[in-house]
Here is the input.
Amino acid sequence: MRRKSGLVLLALAVFFAALSPLLRWYAFPRLAKVPANQYQDMVLEAKDATLLDYDSFKAKKVSKVTIVQTLKGNVEASEAIERTAGRDVVVWDGLSYVQGPDGKMVSKIPERYIFDAHTQEPVHATGETVDGDPVKREGIEFKWPFLVEKRDYEYFDAQARVTAPIHYKGTRDFRGVSVYYFEQTIPWTKVPFPKSMPVKGITPEDVAATGTTRWYTTVRKFWVEPVTGAPVYGEEIHQEELRGGTLLGGREKVTAFAGHVKMREDYIRSTVDLVKSQRTLVLLMTSYLPWGFLSLGVLLLALALYLEARGRRPADPAPTKTSAPEPVTA
Here is the structure.
């Protein structure tokens, strides 16, 4: 009976020991993915910002500029691309909507971001655009891959349509969450005018005809939770200028927008709570279960060896009977 129990325990030990690396290195890369139907929004604010007054065409201080960013998963588009790409694909239809303190639209830039659901690497397919213009992204955007490394990454800037390094600057604590801090600087770059202009009836072509150009620079900052690859907080020190041309009335340049853009407080709290819950699920597959299965396998092996050793131990010899001494007769 002991021998049979030992063999069963040995088989279970081998099973759990083999399951540990299988779960971490085979199952996790295939099961962990961004859902195709995900929807998320984010509100950012730049308080005490500088904004161009299009009536006087002069820059003025305003109390606040609000930026609303939305990302909506397009399941139908992702399924269509998957049929030819041969892998799990996510399509995000994004919109960055900027409005002034009076609620009027400053700019509105849509984009379609197509990427691998598991690795977050860009997937090049028809429809990959920024503000209606075809682009070919290199590097990540919006989200880092699962299990972020302490290194620099390539990050796509939608305004300038360029990819540049975003540098790892160290590990920090953000509201009880251990995060990696990344920073990217985009130098002054000539960028296209948004197709949706803040002045009704004026098109980008009308502005370009005056010889006026649009320039942009930013310092982008992200605090990224490394297990999920999700940013829990972000900031931008953002500047835009209009330069040259007859539109400026002889001036060399004028500020179109300048401000320190930060996530709104309520969105910070909800993002941190969401990332904490997702972090537990990822750790379950990358750490808790693999190490738990390995420990269980070692324990079962030790128990099997113990039962085997006991089964092979020779039985104690039975005690010999000693007969009573015979009475002595004369």
Q: What stands out?
A: The chain has four helices and twelve strands.
